[in-house]
Design a protein that fits this description.
By secondary structure, the protein is α/β, with parallel strands linked by helices. It has 2 domains: 40-183 and 271-450, 3-Layer(aba) Sandwich (Alkaline Phosphatase, subunit A); 193-257. The chain is 30% helix and 10% strand. The chain is built from 10 helices and 11 strands. It has helices at 133-140, 182-190, 198-222, 227-253, 263-268, 278-294, 318-321, 328-333, 341-363, 422-432; strands at residues 17-20, 23-26, 44-49, 93-97, 150-153, 159-160, 163-164, 300-304, 379-384, 398-402, 413-415. The chain has a 7-stranded mixed sheet, sandwiched between helices. A two-stranded antiparallel sheet has the order 1-2. The longest helix is centred in the middle third of the chain and has 27 residues, at 227-253. The chain starts with 16 loop residues before the first strand and ends in a 20-residue tail after the last helix.
């Protein structure tokens, strides 16, 4: 594990001796010797998002084999064809029905992607978001890993308000730019280079000095500005402070080598894949999350498979590239029309297969060397969309996966009352990974019914 040691967590081996003047003395039993077993495996959190909704059912029950939600709830539900690839993972997942963000039900259907991990009513908040739940987790784990979080999307960057190309928002509610180039992500997390060189240290010291000067001068400039300009300057300074935190984190880890990967890991990755080859691209993005978790390079990850930005979203063209004949948005608009169920269902099935491959790899990997639990056991994952059918912000299609080692119990399709906020689930996810919160966002409670 590539984790910085904690001054409170070190342990002495029972065979430790004091050495001096040619003599050795065995130590008496000390508290630091107790529990010398390996440290408890790290806990992790991930969120995966796809846009525009799914097939939820028709009045005459035609094409019901292609409905996203199962026809019956409880532990004896049957997967429809959309989610069939997840059948071997039944005991690792729970399908969630009825949930949504109450504040988001009132805004435009395609304005909801930005809010998937926040629940914020953007239009009532002057397009200012709130902190996303993944970043609450990232703050909790700050300093324990080389990177506080891995933020990814197909489009990269931040997009624009209501058409964001990132799921993640900082404590000021500002979007965190997503990475979208597999090779860039790989080099940042696992690449070699000059991480331990004097040149790298000099660059970090120079960056620190520059940022200090910028922040020192900011107050003087701010006093001379009007309110609007002060707000713009605050946004800029927030970005500067974000860079400052990254530099500080890099300094803390500069002498610790990045984790090595096996030849098999490297051969599996398709680092030059892009959105024009959806199968390779999406699988590679999942592989990067897996490797980041396995090496404990980060404990928090988000991946937006495609955004609500209809015209500019590369990800929106995925179905077309798969031979399904249309953009995601068009598929989702036509789900209940003649011959519309199957193409959208096959797109859902394609996404479910990529997700199943990721979960399977996580399940087949020990959480730590010689551990009895798996990486999936120690990771809680939410997968889904902020639309049920297109333009409908109720009853999000959602899957909760992993986390059996954190207390989650799976194997059911569980329906919630419409009044239940999705943030109840997020509150429970955060608590289970150790974040000491009472609630998250507009949560009205927790979701302890998901626990064993």
């Amino acid at each position: 594990m590539s984790t910085l040691p904690s001054s409170k967590s070190w342990r002495l081996n029972r065979r430790t001796f004091l050495r001096g003047a040619g003599a050795t003395l065995a130590l008496p039993a000390l508290n630091a010797m107790a529990g010398a077993a390996p440290t408890r495996e790290p806990r992790r959190l991930a969120a995966i998002y796809f846009p525009f909704g799914v097939s939820i059912g028709a009045k005459d029950d035609t094409n019901k084999e292609w409905y996203w939600f199962p026809h019956t709830d409880g532990p004896n539900y049957q997967f429809n064809r959309n989610l069939e690839p997840l059948e071997p993972l039944r005991d690792e997942i729970t399908i969630l029905g009825g949930l949504s963000h109450p504040e988001v039900r009132r805004i435009g259907g395609h304005d909801s992607g930005d809010t998937f991990l926040t629940g914020c009513h953007l239009l009532n908040n002057k397009l200012r978001n709130t902190q996303s739940m993944d970043q609450v987790a990232a703050d909790h784990f700050e300093g324990k890993t080389r990177f506080s979080s891995l933020v990814m999307s197909t489009d990269g960057g931040v997009g624009e308000p209501t058409r964001s190309s990132t799921l993640s928002y900082n404590e000021q509610g500002r979007p965190i730019p997503a990475l979208n180039q597999p090779r860039q992500i790989f080099e940042r997390f696992f690449g070699g280079g000059d991480a331990s060189s004097a040149r790298h240290r000099r660059r970090l010291r120079s960056a620190t000095s520059m940022l200090d000067l910028v922040l020192e001068d900011a107050d003087r400039v701010r006093r001379r500005l009007g309110k609007h300009d002060q707000e713009k300057l605050d946004e800029y300074l927030d970005a500067v402070r974000h860079v400052e935190k990254r530099v500080e984190r890099a300094q803390a880890w500069v002498d610790i080598p990045k984790p090595g990967l096996s030849d098999a890991d490297r051969e599996r990755l398709r680092l030059d894949s892009d959105a024009e080859v959806p199968t390779e691209y999406i699988s590679t993005m999942y592989d990067l999350i897996y490797l980041a978790f396995r090496t404990d390079s980060t404990r928090v990850a988000t991946y937006q498979i495609a955004s609500m930005g209809d015209a500019t979203t590369l990800g929106g063209k995925f179905p077309q590239l798969l031979g399904l004949g249309s953009h995601v948005h068009s598929l989702c608009h036509g789900w209940n029309k003649k011959d519309g169920f199957e193409p959208l269902g096959k797109w859902d099935q394609f996404l479910a297969q990529r997700f199943a491959d990721f979960l399977t790899r996580m399940r087949n990997t020990p959480a730590a060397p010689e551990s009895d639990t798996t990486l999936l056991d120690q990771t809680t994952i939410v997968y889904g969309c902020s639309n049920s059918s297109t333009h409908n912000n109720n009853n999000y299609p959602l899957i909760l996966a992993g986390g059996k080692g954190l207390g989650f119990k799976h194997g059911s399709y569980r329906k919630f009352a419409k009044t239940t906020p999705l943030n109840n689930v997020y509150t429970t996810m955060l608590r289970r990974i150790g974040v000491p919160i009472q609630s998250f966002g507009d949560a009205s409670g927790d979701a302890n019914e998901l626990l064993a």
